[in-house]
Amino acid sequence: YLSQNLTQRVNNGAGIPQQGDIICFSKPGSVGHVGIVAGVYSGKLRVFQENVGQTDINGQFCSGYKDFTFTNNGSTYNVSASMLGSTWSTLGWVR
Q1: Dist. CA 5–CA 14, nearest whole Å
Q2: CB-based contact 77:16 (threshold 8 Å)
Q3: Is residue 59's pLDDT more than 70?
Q4: Is the Cα dihedral 22, 65, 46, 86 positive or negative?
Q5: pTM: predicted TM-score of the whole model, two decimal places
Q6: What gap in Å lies between CA 23 and CA 12, rounded to an integer?
Q7: In a 3-state reduction of DSSP, which class is residue 78?
Q8: Percent helix, strand, coil in the chain (nearest 5)?
Q9: What tens digit of pLDDT does each residue of 16-54 get?
Q10: Helix, strand or coil for residue 8?
Q11: Residues paired with residue 41 on neighbouring β-strands, in sequence order
């Protein structure tokens, strides 16, 4: 990310992801997962992604989005990865 002039933001840090940010998730024993932030809609963070269990009528993975919950603890934000499953966590995002 540094060679592309992107800035790393950690989960539980200052600010919430913004449209166009690349958000990164982790799961023990997994290769991880990324998505592109679309913005905040109806109080949730909308993230476009692929290969997360969403399927089309033929049973094939399809792109889509999920709306992630987040909390604001004054000056910090925490994006929950629970939409991906109970063992996933949000690492942060780059802008």
Answers
A1: 19
A2: yes
A3: no
A4: negative
A5: 0.84
A6: 13
A7: strand
A8: 5, 45, 50
A9: 899 999 999 999 998 889 999 999 999 999 999 877 666
A10: strand
A11: 44
Which residue has tokens 């592109």?
36
Where does the chain show beta strands of DSSP type E? 8-10, 22-26, 33-41, 44-49, 64-68, 70-72, 77-79, 89-94
**What residues does 50 pair with on adjacent strands?**
none
Closest CA to 22 of 32, 58, 83, 59: 32
Q: How many residues appear in the chain?
A: 95
Name the CA dihedral angle for 57, 86, 37, 91, rounded to a multiple of 10 degrees. Answer: -140
Q: Which two tokens stand for residue 93?
A: 């995002």
Q: Chain centroid to CA 81: how far? A: 7
Distance CA 74, CA 58 (A): 45
Residue type, 42: S
- CA distance linking residue 81 with residue 95, whole number of Å: 19
